[in-house]
Design a protein that fits this description.
Blueprint: H1 3-19, H2 26-36, H3 44-53, H4 61-73, E1 77-82, E2 85-90, E3 95-100, E4 106-109, H5 112-120, E5 132-137, H6 140-159
Parallel strand pairs: 3-5
Antiparallel strand pairs: 1-2, 3-4
Helix pairs in contact: 1-2, 2-4
Length: about 160
């Protein structure tokens, strides 16, 4: 994580905790650093494992969950609910995800035309902060499995 980003997100957290008379716990700051040192999406379990293994700072699942809810409120983290799983990522630039409906694989994709269209979109009495687009379909790996399965069935029928 860049020092400037680290300082900025820690200042957001500091300000919120001070204004609301909450404690500045080492758990909150360690979790924040771990999140901002993670590339892409992560689950609650992956974050817990990273804290325990890389940071030697194990925390309870409840602490992770409550801290992530706080970070979502502060717009430091965003939550995605992909097919049966909940993933988180650093709140940031607008982007699109392609999601395989068979295996659940999630990939970020660049969609400059969509980004431009949304940037140019004028909404009444609404300030845009960003967007996330979910594109559902079947990934090439799953498509290949389907094709092989289909070809195997055809071959079995012709052999009879």
């Amino acid at each position: 994580m860049k020092d400037s980003v680290k300082d900025a997100v820690e200042k957001v957290l500091d300000s919120y905790l001070e204004m609301n008379n909450h404690r500045k716990t080492p758990e909150r700051y360690t979790i924040l650093r771990a999140i901002y040192n993670t590339n892409g999406h992560f689950t609650l379990d992956e974050l817990g494992k990273k804290l325990a293994e890389e940071y030697k700072f194990p925390v309870s699942r409840a602490t992770l969950y409550n801290t992530l809810n706080l970070f979502m409120e502060l717009r430091l983290v965003i939550r995605h609910r992909f097919q049966g799983t909940t993933n988180y990522e650093v709140y940031g630039a607008s982007h699109s995800h392609q999601i395989c409906t068979m295996c659940g694989k999630v990939t970020e994709v660049k969609t400059p035309e969509v980004t431009k269209a949304i940037d140019d979109l004028h909404l009444k009495r609404f300030r845009k902060d960003g967007f996330t687009l979910y594109i559902y379909g079947i990934c090439s790996t799953c498509q290949a499995k389907l094709t092989r399965k289909k070809n195997t069935k055809k071959q079995t029928k012709t052999d009879k």
